[in-house]
Specification:
By secondary structure, this protein is α+β, with helices and mostly antiparallel strands. 18% of the residues lie in helices and 33% in strands.
Length: 322
């Protein structure tokens, strides 16, 4: 029983409106769900993905306008990757990033693939990674109504980088989920140990986690421009319950079963303090909206629908109509 790869990543923004503009108009991702943080309904939870928001394509954001900026450090999800189909797509993105004044590095090679390191306007550290040499098929299909041509569009999530002071406990937690060591690559910072590449399932870019040892950083302070948690894919609710039993057997403190309506979840922190989630592949985002208009109106799960008037009164309007 192994997880299938990365399900979604959830980061933090200070402006839902600016976030929506960047990820849809510049990166060309589709907003597939505009809902609220179910634990704090005064905050939006925005889900961006491929044309349907398939698992493995979702980059999501909590909107926390009163939060401070993140302080980079250990015990963090320090970099998130987005996949494109080819090296030719990276050439397109270099031109697009220049056109839109997106801070970025030139195309380089990292962990056997060509990449572009870049960041959004709030300082979130991101990577575009080419699937040119990836042996595993793309997770999703770019939306054909995106401003980015389909052949260059973002197809899903790539490797996630976890930065920790001591890698062994994090590796042990990943091994519980079925990850094994694939290889090691040279550190990005001189004087630091090699980065350990862990993979799960069929492997490939969408099923890799990079564990980066760093002894030169303080602990991260989470905030705007940082990543809140990473979620890994499990098949269905039956398998999730089996995972709950397995995580309980390890004595790792955890949330138990959590109903998120669009998927079902389990949360726990690995020993270095990074928040992991296990999330089911379904039911999906077309459960309560037509596929054609995903993300255009505020969607609420049934257990929050009775509070809609109060929720809408306490959240800043966000126009996501197309």
């Amino acid at each position: 029983m192994n997880v299938k790869g990365i399900h979604h990543l959830t980061a933090m923004t200070g402006s839902a409106a600016h976030n929506f503009k960047f990820y849809t108009e510049v990166l060309g991702m589709r907003l597939v769900k505009k809902t609220v943080n179910q634990d704090d309904t005064t905050a939006y939870h925005l889900f961006y993905g491929d044309e349907q928001g398939n698992p493995g394509t979702e980059l999501t954001f909590f909107d926390f306008p009163n939060a401070g900026p993140k302080r980079a450090g250990v015990s963090s999800i320090s970099n998130s990757s987005l996949r494109v189909a080819s090296d030719a797509a990276l050439n397109y993105w270099i031109e697009r990033f220049t056109e839109f004044n997106v801070k970025h590095a030139p195309i380089s090679e990292f962990a056997g693939r060509n990449v572009i390191f870049f960041e959004d306007a709030e300082g979130q550290q991101l990577t575009l990674v080419s699937d040119e040499t990836n042996s595993v098929a793309a997770t999703g299909t770019p939306w054909d109504k995106s401003p980015v041509p389909v052949e260059y569009g973002i197809t899903g999530l790539g490797p996630v980088r976890l930065t920790v002071r001591t890698p062994e406990p994090t590796i042990a937690a990943l091994q519980i989920l079925g990850f094994t060591e694939k290889n090691r690559v040279p550190a990005l910072v001189e004087g630091q140990d090699d980065i350990i590449v862990m993979e799960v399932g069929d492997g490939g870019s969408g099923a890799e986690v990079f564990v980066e040892p760093r002894n030169d950083l303080p602990a991260e302070v989470q905030g705007i421009g940082g990543v809140h948690h990473v979620a890994f894919r499990v098949k269905d609710e039956e398998e999730l319950h089996a995972w709950i039993d397995k995580i309980n057997s390890t004595r790792l403190p955890n949330s138990g079963f959590v109903e998120r309506f669009y998927f079902r979840s389990l949360y726990f922190r690995e020993p270095n303090g990074i928040l992991f989630e296990l999330a089911t592949d379904g039911p999906g985002f077309a459960t309560d909206e037509p596929l054609e208009t995903l993300g255009e109106s505020l969607a609420l799960p049934p257990f929050l629908e009775g509070k809609r008037a109060a929720i809408e009164a306490n959240i800043k309007p966000l126009n996501t109509s197309r």
